[in-house]
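dumping this here so i dont lose it
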């Protein structure tokens, strides 16, 4: 159940009583406001509030840089200039507050981005729901042979079924014990802040996450990348669709200069020049490590 009845009732009430405002409004973002976009089996992302739009970015840039931006003829061109030259402050003028429901192990990855304001559901005060992330069979994979922090080939048949059965069984058993430890029926029970330590990392938590657009783009550049772990990448993909409607000029620039772009080291640039000059560049004479060479070949391919 992505949304609790109480959360849905709150959303319905807010949507039933719209108010006029003098603040900047993004029509694209208004369509997402309060709507819970499903992610994984029990998760979601929804916009609780936001500030600014494409115009807020250019407004701030023209105040900050003055003559340096007068040659840019329109807002989209200015935003692309700012993104292309790695200006950051104008993009910080836009902010979004999100309500996210996600597995704990995904939250631990997400919280590594320490440039946001976070308030998480407290298992010290409340009892967590019996909801766990169980991957679909197509996402149950073995350890990668070339990447120590990634997955390799998908498990098949009986092996996939065996692993999924263990995940489901352990999750339910751990929650049964959690309930038994905090039970108030004829026993004193363990404090919630202690009982929670027995829960698995695939149980769902929730938080409010407020971030400016500059740091959100940094998050998306890393987590919407094809190499990111699937379980956090699907959240990033959902956010990309929201941001695309919120600030379309900024998002298109982000796609072109960050998400769809690559960075080359000095050695990679040198090898590229040598290749363009007709030289046969190999792993042996490239001057890079095996992993760098593999990444360079991946870019070229």
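and the seq i came up w/
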């Amino acid at each position: 159940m992505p949304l609790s009845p109480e959360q849905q009732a709150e959303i319905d009430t807010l949507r039933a009583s719209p108010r006029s405002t003098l603040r900047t409004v993004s029509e694209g973002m208004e369509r997402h406001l309060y709507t819970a976009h499903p992610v994984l089996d029990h998760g979601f992302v929804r916009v609780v509030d936001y500030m600014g739009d494409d115009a807020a970015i250019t407004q701030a840039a023209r105040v900050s840089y003055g003559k340096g931006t007068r040659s840019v003829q329109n807002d989209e061109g200015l935003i692309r200039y700012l993104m292309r030259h790695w200006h950051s402050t104008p993009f910080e003028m836009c902010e979004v507050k999100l309500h996210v429901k996600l597995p704990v192990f995904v939250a631990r990855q997400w919280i590594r981005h320490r440039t946001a304001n976070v308030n998480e559901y407290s298992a010290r005060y409340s009892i967590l729901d019996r909801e766990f992330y169980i991957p679909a069979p197509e996402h149950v994979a073995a350890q990668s042979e070339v990447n120590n922090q990634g997955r390799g080939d998908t498990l098949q048949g009986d092996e996939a079924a065996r692993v999924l059965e263990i995940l489901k069984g352990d999750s339910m058993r751990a929650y049964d014990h959690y309930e038994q430890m905090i039970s108030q029926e004829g026993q004193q029970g363990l404090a919630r802040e202690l009982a929670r330590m027995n829960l698995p990392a695939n149980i769902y938590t929730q938080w409010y996450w407020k971030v400016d657009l500059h740091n959100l783009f940094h998050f998306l550049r890393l987590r919407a990348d094809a190499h990111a772990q699937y379980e956090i990448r699907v959240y990033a993909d959902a956010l990309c669709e929201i941001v695309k409607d919120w600030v379309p000029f900024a998002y298109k620039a982000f796609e072109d200069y960050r998400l769809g772009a690559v960075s080359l080291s000095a050695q990679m640039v040198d090898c590229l020049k040598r290749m363009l000059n007709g030289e046969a560049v190999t792993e042996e004479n490239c001057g890079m490590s095996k992993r760098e060479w593999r990444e360079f070949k991946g870019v070229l391919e």
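The longest strand covers residues 43-51.
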